[in-house]
């Protein structure tokens, strides 16, 4: 997507950025990305996080940046020199040890999300962009959710939702997400696949509306077993669940085919012959997309009543404080959120 497609809009949307786990690379990513002029052409941004943490990181990685405390997201225009921050938690974070699991950091990351949803519900911002949280930190804080997608579904009362990775005009949605691989078989059903197809078509119709020109998005469904089961030789899920789901989706007017072996299906997506792919579990979709996109993939939550995009990388505890965190994912996530708000 060209920068001009978003930057050319007359009034950039107001977005909030949640700081994520402060023991990770999120704070560094923010202050590094803030000096990129594209970020502020796409949107007017306010970080919901911790003022002290961001002041510390700005002094270290972007000394020209001025952190300004605000009371609501739309009260101060962001720029390469000005970083508006809304204090999003009462948890004391100044002595949280970088690069380590912390219950306080986990609780604060949840608080930032809750505050962001409140801001959006009051109309103070049009969308949110999230930085990475740590699942062990959430658990240590007693937060009963495994990740952003499930937290935001709970905070917004959403029952039909999903995760899409987006890069280079290709969207990959996951039928199952944060669960043990052995649990996949309990959650895989015709209805579950149909739900993700429906959510994916709706999102791709927004993300690619100019390119699609009114035609439906073209989707491919991954097989579960090697060679998509090879006619039942390597498993019957393709015959009993996946093929019936494709037929039902086609009867509803969706342009979807499969199930196909995932290795060849992702090559079709890479070559632009598909708009979207339905993967069946977390790593089936994440591994090829991150090989294609590196740190530029964008995580988009489907089905929410709000716009939410995210970087697609984690907290990267192993590189915290080394000055090598890549801000490119945040820039892409802001661009995608601005497009969805347009």
Provide structural commentary.
The chain is an alpha/beta fold. The chain folds into two domains: 1-158 and 304-342, Isopropylmalate Dehydrogenase (3-Layer(aba) Sandwich); 161-303, Isopropylmalate Dehydrogenase. The chain is 41% helix and 18% strand. Strands 3-4-2-1-5-12-11-6-7-10-8-9 form a twelve-stranded mixed β-sheet, sandwiched between helices. The chain is globular, with a radius of gyration of 20 Å. It starts with a helix and ends with a helix. Residues 1-5 have low confidence and may be disordered.
Which tags fit this structure?
2 domains; 12 strands; globular; Isopropylmalate Dehydrogenase; 41% helix; 342 residues; twelve-stranded mixed β-sheet
Secondary-structure map:
Elements (H helix, E strand, L loop, with lengths): L2 H5 L6 E5 L7 H8 L3 H6 L1 E6 L1 H11 L4 E4 L12 E6 L15 H19 L5 E4 L4 H6 L7 H9 L5 E6 L2 E5 L9 H4 L2 H18 L1 H4 L5 E5 L14 H15 L3 E6 L1 H9 L5 E4 L2 H12 L4 E5 L4 E5 L16 H14 L1
Parallel strand pairs: 1-2, 1-5, 2-4, 3-4, 5-12, 7-10, 8-9, 8-10
Antiparallel strand pairs: 6-7, 6-11, 11-12
Helix pairs in contact: 2-4, 5-7, 9-11
Q: Can I get a quick summary?
A:
With 342 residues, the protein is of the alpha/beta class. The protein contains 14 helices and 12 strands. It has 2 domains: 1-158 and 304-342, 3-Layer(aba) Sandwich (Isopropylmalate Dehydrogenase); 161-303, Isopropylmalate Dehydrogenase (3-Layer(aba) Sandwich).
């Amino acid at each position: 997507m060209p920068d001009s497609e978003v930057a050319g809009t007359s009034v950039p949307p107001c977005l909030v950025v949640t700081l994520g786990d402060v023991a990770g690379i999120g704070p560094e990513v923010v202050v590094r990305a803030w000096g990129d002029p594209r970020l502020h052409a796409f949107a007017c941004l306010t970080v919901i996080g911790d003022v002290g943490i961001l002041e510390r990181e700005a002094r270290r990685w972007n000394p020209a940046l001025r952190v300004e405390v605000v009371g609501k997201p739309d009260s101060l225009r962001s720029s390469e020199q000005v970083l508006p921050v809304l204090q999003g938690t009462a948890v004391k974070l100044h002595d949280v040890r970088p690069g380590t699991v912390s219950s306080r950091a986990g609780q604060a990351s949840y608080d930032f999300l809750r505050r962001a949803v409140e801001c959006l519900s009051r109309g103070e911002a049009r969308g949110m962009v999230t930085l990475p949280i740590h699942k062990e930190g959430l658990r240590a804080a007693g937060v009963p959710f495994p990740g952003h997608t499930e937290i935001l579904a709970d905070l917004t009362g959403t029952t039909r939702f999903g995760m899409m990775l987006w890069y280079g005009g290709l969207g990959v949605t996951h039928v199952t997400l944060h669960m043990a691989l052995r649990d996949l078989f309990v959650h895989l059903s015709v209805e579950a696949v149909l739900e993700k197809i429906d959510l994916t078509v709706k999102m791709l119709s927004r993300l690619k509306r100019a390119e699609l020109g009114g035609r439906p998005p073209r989707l491919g469904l991954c097989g579960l077993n090697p060679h998509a089961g090879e006619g039942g030789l390597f498993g019957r899920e393709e015959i009993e669940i996946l093929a019936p789901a494709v037929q039902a989706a086609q009867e509803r007017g969706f342009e979807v085919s499969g199930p196909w072996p995932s290795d060849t299906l992702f090559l079709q997506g890479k070559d632009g012959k598909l708009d979207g792919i339905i993967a069946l579990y977390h790593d089936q979709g994440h591994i090829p997309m991150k090989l294609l996109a590196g740190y530029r993939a964008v995580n988009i939550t489907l089905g929410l009543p709000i716009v939410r995009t995210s970087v697609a990388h984690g907290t990267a505890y192993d590189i915290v404080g080394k000055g090598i965190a890549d801000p490119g994912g945040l820039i892409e996530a802001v661009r995608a959120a601005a497009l969805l708000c347009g």
